[in-house]
Design goal:
Distance between the termini: 23 Å
Helix content: 55-70%
Shape: globular
Strand content: under 5%
């Protein structure tokens, strides 16, 4: 199935609409989380909805514009090989490194390795505990989060 090509102005307009709708839905969900208060762990449904927001908006736009899904990325065997998969796996780490690194360097937040007492890591030093939690996050956390957000 061939995907019809769009003019550049149409493609840009559709991208802008998608981004505005995604931002609006995400903002509404985040506002609900803030309004409900409490720890983020108490808002699993809202966090799940927030993770699904970009995909749901994309599907909605594709339905309205009758685009279909033939051009959707991340298919196994697609051009680019493993590069898109590696980017998807490591991007959260890069984003967190920038966000948390900036906060720690500017003094907005204090560095502290996760307690992880339920994992039996509390006797380890902070750097070792941090490395173990990072390895666990990369090996299971990111893929599990990706699956729930898929």
């Amino acid at each position: 199935m061939t995907v019809p090509s769009l003019s550049v102005p149409t493609a840009r307009r559709r991208l802008a609409i998608y981004l505005v709708l995604t931002f609006a839905l995400s903002l509404a969900i985040q506002a609900r989380i803030v309004a409900l208060g409490g720890p983020i762990a108490a808002h699993v449904g809202e966090v799940f909805a927030l993770m699904w927001a970009p995909g749901l908006v994309s599907l909605g736009c594709r339905l309205v514009w009758r685009e279909g899904v033939a051009d959707v990325s991340f298919r196994v065997g697609r051009a680019g090989g493993a590069t898109p998969w590696l980017l998807a796996w490591l991007s959260p780490l890069a984003i967190c490194a920038l966000a948390y690194g900036s906060a720690w360097l500017t003094g907005l937040d204090r560095f502290g390795a996760p307690e992880a007492s339920n994992l039996g890591l509390s006797e380890l030093s902070s750097p070792v505990r941090f490395a173990v939690v990072l390895a666990l996050t990369l090996s299971s956390g990111v893929p599990l989060s990706a699956l729930t957000a898929l």
